[in-house]
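RETRY 2/3 - previous attempt timed out on the joint model. Re-submitting the same 226-residue input unchanged.
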Amino acid sequence: DVQLTQSPSFLSASVGDRVSITCRASQGIGASLGWYQQIPGKGPKLLIYDASTLQSGVPSRFSGRGSGTEFTLTISTLQPEDFATYFCQQLAFYPKTFGQGTRLDNK
Amino acid sequence: QVHLQHWGAGLLNPSETLSLTCAVYGGSLSGYYWNWIRQPPGKALEWIGEIEHRGYTTYNPSLESRVTISVDASKNQFSLRLSSVTAADTAVYYCARGDLTMSGSFDPWGQGALVTVSS
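RETRY 2/3 succeeded.
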């Protein structure tokens, strides 16, 4: 299975900050990576697909980059509604796997 | 806008069979892959398997011997059955649509259903 390792696991930041989350794959997956936001009590929400394409309706402060084994999700200017858990997912190989998640807390 | 809603028993005894159904509202099953995912308390998401609208399935090898995913096109629904459950199967279970135009990324997801296995 392709292992996805996210860093950091926990991140404390303030409204207005710029934050980045990294996802590393145990083998090359091209650009077959998605980023999701999860708020407690709700189903996850797709933010980015194909490593860097913003899903329709997602604010432009979210961006993704990377290919192969290293990927980054960046939030350019944190808003109050962005404090949540974020995780990556690879879709290049079966079984489809997820990173362990990064919890973003309000400092 | 497509919306997924799922239901099923929330409390099971060990060795019983977990059964969940996910209804698709506002869209068709055709042209997409329909997935089940779970998240044990405090752990990462785990993909369980998927079904294509014609019934072709792919399962996570870690669960394949106990999993059956089926589709009912007439009701615009798909279902999950997981046999011989143990406490390790306690998790929030999600259904989600996989879209090949987005490399199969999952969107949307259902709201999640907590299934607890306990004697």
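The longest strand of chain B covers residues 91-99. Closing ticket.
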